[in-house]
Amino acid sequence: MPPLPPLLRATRPLSHSLLRLRPFLSTTTTSHKPLSTSASPRKPKAAPKTTTKTTKAKSAARTDESIAVTYPDPSAVPPSEPVVGAGGAHGLPTLATFSLQGRVGVVTGGARGLGLVMGQGMVVSGADLAIVDLNKDEADKQAKLIVETFQRENPGVERLPRVTAHFGDVSDAASVDKCVAEILKAHGKIDSLVTSAGFTENCEATAYPIERVRKLWGVNVDGTYLFATAVARHLMERKAKGSMVFIGSMSGSIVNVPQPQAPYNASKAAVRHLAASLSVEWAKAGIRVNCISPGYMLTALTEKILNGNPDLKSQWTSLIPQGQMGNPKDLMGPVTFLLSDASSYVTGADLRVDGGYTVT
Ligand SMILES: NC(=O)c1ccc[n+]([C@@H]2O[C@H](COP(=O)([O-])OP(=O)(O)OC[C@H]3O[C@@H](n4cnc5c(N)ncnc54)[C@H](O)[C@@H]3O)[C@@H](O)[C@H]2O)c1
């Protein structure tokens, strides 16, 4: 990977979102001014201008529309691996209310990244799981791996978890309804939902094509709303209690710099307040809704970039009070807590899992 431009090195960290540019760039018009994805970085037109901008970015928390970053094609990124050593039914004793035994959970965007790890956390905590993703093949593969890992780590366990994979486009109402019906056919019920399907892009607002912004909001906001309401209807019909966790981002509460990502930030603010609003609307039905807002997490995609750029990693981590990026495993406990009875009086909350980033 070619070196990142000086601006990038001089300012606050980039979110994992910078890794998402290739699909964006492949669909943009020539009038749009996207971040570079060419093999070699763009040459600055005039050195003094670049220097001035760098100085500005160094001295102020501002977004910078000239940020360019090269990142690997998503197909070159290794798939996520199930977490090993998470324990399970035969692990250390813990508060019984943390158990998800007997529950059926759904995780959208669960074929990779954070969704996969949170789904595995639910399984380790006793739940059966339905993985929903656009990438059905990967979801199928991961469903098998989760059960195999569970079996290996819990020798002699009486019952293996049931983990299924389902195609679903969360931004499409018909696809969501079809997917929920398929899950109900496979599992008989749904008790818990984690909405992790989402993506992000970086582009200055004045150049961001509106159709791409709508696509982003369609997955991040509509997708959360559609899946949550479909599951809520099922819970209400069943007169059953339930718990939902929406995956927001610290970007829903703060503005990341220097990468421009206003539509993403707005989408995650919407996710956070949607959780709060629905928690009030559905409290009488016994449905709890909370939000988890992760900070900078080390996923397969970010790791691939950072391995080749140790300097960049240290710059990112220097802004996190805990001094390191989050591991997807760091979400297993928070999601289990919020889905379980251990949090039965917690609803409408936003749990930031960001190493302290947002309190500085
Ligand atoms: N990784 C981070 O550092 C980070 C930080 C804060 C918030 N988040 C949020 O966490 C969530 C997961 O991020 P990730 O890094 O694991 O991403 P990821 O790209 O690794 O995984 C996202 C998954 O969602 C699926 N998906 C995308 N669009 C979909 C759709 N329309 N319908 C169904 N599935 C779809 C993808 O196929 C993929 O499997 C996102 O909402 C993201 O905004 C991530």
Automatic annotation (TrEMBL):
Transmembrane segments: none annotated. It comes from the Eukaryota. Residues 36-60 have a biased composition (Low complexity). Keywords: NADP, Oxidoreductase. Gene3D superfamilies: NAD(P)-binding Rossmann-like Domain. One of its GO terms (molecular function) is oxidoreductase activity, acting on NAD(P)H, oxygen as acceptor. Residues 25-65 are annotated as: Disordered. GO terms for biological process: mannitol metabolic process. It holds the Pfam family adh_short_C2. Belongs to the short-chain dehydrogenases/reductases (SDR) family. PANTHER family: BENZIL REDUCTASE, DEHYDROGENASE ARBD, PUTATIVE-RELATED. This is NAD(P)-binding protein. It comes from Schizothecium vesticola.
